[in-house]
Write a structure and sequence with these properties.
alpha+beta, Beta-lactamase, 2 domains, eight-stranded antiparallel beta barrel, 19 strands, 40% helix, 14% strand
Length: 702
């Protein structure tokens, strides 16, 4: 629609006035049809699409021996690297108090930057383990709790040397370690490159995120919260955080190849694997995680095996990191229904660890990601076993690293820790009831499938600043099915649809799998017909019901339609001006002096300047969004300039409305009137988007 006028106007300048009715009619169709199509597609979403294939699980009952594990890992990881485009991997497995096996696959350095390729060695090669750092940090924090230096349930303000604004309520270390302190997401400055390091105090005090949820009530994964907990440990211990971990965790546990230092000491840096987007591209520069306690740790597979043994209680007394009581407290859910309400029916955070239990297999652990390193660790206390895996590349598809980690973790539990009778595909204890059984069974109380229907936003999002615009990506749509199940698109940690059935009043389980969703209604879950307002998953993530004006299916088409209108208006403007100038040059009475610009011409000019400002702001916000998602630095000055442009666009609604009213009053014709009314609607729609998504906000710290 926009290319034709752009290409045609220069060639047919004298015919430009004839384009106006065509453009007005075309933009009217686009601006009106797109929002209607969006609403129609949302409301007409199929309620009975074919269900996706259930998650695949491996046969159980295998003996957990070094030979069997090595053979299985060779197939699960070794053969997968080439097909996924991930350069290298390291893995360690512990069982019965010992390192069962540790293996390296692929390359730590592909040699693409010159020099020789270097293979991965599980003992020598170091990997960045991302957010698994959080459980190591939490271990040091619980050590201070165990000694009486910290209180899990005290207001953390007493430990800080700066004022932390908590309008929703005071927060505790328990909140910080369970991601329920209520902070909005922080993106800016999280990951940088060498030379961008900031002191830990500056990282937590320079621009704290807003507290947007009541503490203890809404799981919202927070790197800032974990970093603040680490800073508290630093303050109370009197030791720099990296040194505190070195003295209290790494040295006692015998983890001689681990560090939170940034940059790494030379001897460790020489052993660090390079990180790659995939095996065909150059390596990324070494990443700096300024939220250090949340993600800056570097380690080897064998060092992580020592850490797993410590948390399984298998290190000798002198090497033990925590006493039995402290270990038990770290490994059990840290919040209950008094805080979480009915969300407590689902998975809950332990102190730093995720509860990753599945039927018959209790488990806890953590995953970790930087831009190019991807890691995961699971501990199985009932089986005295654990597995750690880390990859030094993202792979050629968006979910390559996640899929491979899932294959390894789930495959390990299925193969070695489940009995064959527990395999859902074989009708064991974890099996899903057949359709006949499900129809005969009495449905649990609580919200029905229809009560979950709608669009949801992630609680892990910026809320009070321009970063709120990112909420338009990654929204989740829940659609009820006639059999009482719900289809969730995309399902958590996936890009496909998952189908979930109710197994308890406020708990839903993926059909054929183990993933859980817990619900909370606007009446606390007591009323069967109450609308679901929140859905939690994965212990520290919550889906919050979106308002209609927040849903991408409405906002994006409206914004695109408005963009088309403004682009068309800006194209017609110079074409019409040239045509009028040509007409005046041939018809103007030479005896009549030029009239001074009239007021309506000034209003038209202000309207068009506002349209241009709005278009520039939209382009700028799109660029900023891409930069933010790639952790590129965006200066406050850039954001303030975009806000000024956005404000000019908002203010332009007034002159645009006056211009449209005068077109109606002067009976300028349906084409002119339609075009100018559409401009008013487009400016007003984009102004609404700007306010809803906080593009005009006092804070630009996203």
């Amino acid at each position: 629609m926009t290319t034709t006028p752009t290409q045609g106007a220069p060639r047919t300048g004298r015919r430009a006035p004839r384009l106006l009715p065509r453009l007005a009619a075309a933009t009217a169709v686009v601006a009106l049809a797109l929002p209607l199509a969006a609403c129609g597609s949302a409301s007409a979403a199929p309620t009975e699409a074919a269900p996706p294939a259930p998650p695949r699980q491996q046969p159980g009952g295998h003996s957990l021996t070094a030979d069997d594990v090595d053979t299985w890992l060779d197939g699960a990881i070794g053969s997968a690297l080439q097909t996924t485009g991930i350069p290298g991997a390291t893995v360690s497995v512990v069982s019965d108090g010992e390192l069962l096996t540790a293996k390296g696959y692929g390359l730590a350095d592909t040699g693409t930057e010159g020099g020789s390729a270097r293979p991965v060695d599980p003992d020598d090669t170091l990997f960045r383990i991302g957010s698994i750092s959080k459980v190591v940090s939490a271990t040091a924090i619980i050590q201070l709790v165990e000694r009486g230096d910290l209180d899990l349930d005290a207001d953390v303000q007493q430990y800080l040397d700066f004022d932390l604004d908590t309008p929703k309520g005071p927060i505790t270390l328990r909140h910080l370690l369970t991601h329920t302190a209520g902070f909005e997401e922080v993106i800016a400055g999280l990951i940088g490159t060498a030379g961008s390091e900031v002191p830990l105090r500056e990282a937590v005090s320079a621009a704290p995120p807003e507290q947007v949820y009541e503490p203890g009530t809404t799981p919202a994964y927070s790197n800032y919260g974990a970093t603040l907990a680490g800073y508290i440990a630093e303050r109370v211990s009197g030791e720099p955080f990296a040194e505190l971990l070195q003295q209290n965790v790494f040295e006692p546990a015998g983890m001689s190849s681990s560090s939170f230092e940034q940059p790494l000491p030379d001897d460790l840096d020489a052993r660090l694997a390079k990180g790659y987007p995939d095996d065909s591209q150059p390596a990324y520069p070494t990443e700096v995680v300024n939220a250090a306690p949340a993600g800056a740790m570097t380690s080897s597979a064998t060092d992580m095996a020592r850490f797993m043994l410590a948390h399984l209680g298998d290190l000798p007394g002198d090497d033990a990191l925590l006493g039995d009581d402290a270990l038990a407290e770290m490994h059990r859910p840290a919040l209950d229904a008094d805080q979480l309400g009915t969300l407590a029916a689902g998975q809950r955070m332990d102190l730093g660890f995720f509860d990753d239990s599945t039927p018959g297999v209790p488990a806890f652990g953590h995953d970790g990601d930087t831009q190019v390193f991807h890691s995961a660790m699971r501990l199985f206390p009932d089986h005295d076993a654990g597995i750690f895996v880390s990859l030094n590349g993202s792979g050629r598809t968006p979910t390559a690293s996640l899929d491979l980690r899932t294959t390894v973790l789930q495959g390990f539990a299925d193969r070695y820790l489940r009995d064959e009778a527990d395999d859902p595909s074989r009708g064991g204890a974890g099996a899903v009831a057949s359709d006949t059984d499900a129809s005969d069974a009495e449905a649990p109380d609580g919200p029905a499938a229809a009560d979950l229907a709608g669009t949801y936003l992630s609680s892990r999002s910026p809320v009070t600043n321009p970063g709120a615009l990112l909420a338009l990506s990654g929204q989740t749509v829940v659609v009820p099915r006639t059999d009482g199940t719900v289809a969730v698109t995309p399902k958590p940690l996936g890009v496909t649809t998952g189908v979930y059935e109710k197994i308890e009043p406020n708990l839903w389980r993926e059909v054929g799998g183990d993933a859980l969703l817990a619900t909370r209604t606007d009446s606390g879950g007591d009323a069967d017909d109450a609308t679901v307002t929140a859905i939690s998953w994965g212990a520290s993530f919550t889906l919050l019901r979106a308002q209609p004006w927040q849903t991408a299916s409405v906002v994006v088409p409206v914004a695109l339609g408005s963009l088309v209108v403004l682009l068309a208006s800006m194209i017609v403007w110079p074409a019409t001006a040239l045509a009028r100038a040509g007409g005046r040059s041939t018809r103007r009475d030479p005896s009549r002096p030029d009239a001074a610009p009239r007021r309506k011409d000034r209003m038209l000019l202000l309207s068009r300047l506002g349209q241009a400002s709005t278009l520039l702001a939209l382009v700028g916000w799109a660029i900023v969004a891409v930069q933010a998602m790639s952790f590129a630095e965006v200066t406050a000055t850039t954001l303030r300039v975009l806000q000024v442009l956005q404000v000019l666009g908002v203010l332009a609604v007034v002159p645009a409305a006056l211009v449209a009213w005068r077109a109606v009053r002067d009976r300028r014709g349906w084409a002119v009137v339609t075009g100018r009314v559409l401009v008013v609607a487009a400016l007003a729609a984009l102004a609404t988007v700007a306010f809803v998504f906080r593009l005009i906000a006092p804070s630009v710290s996203f």
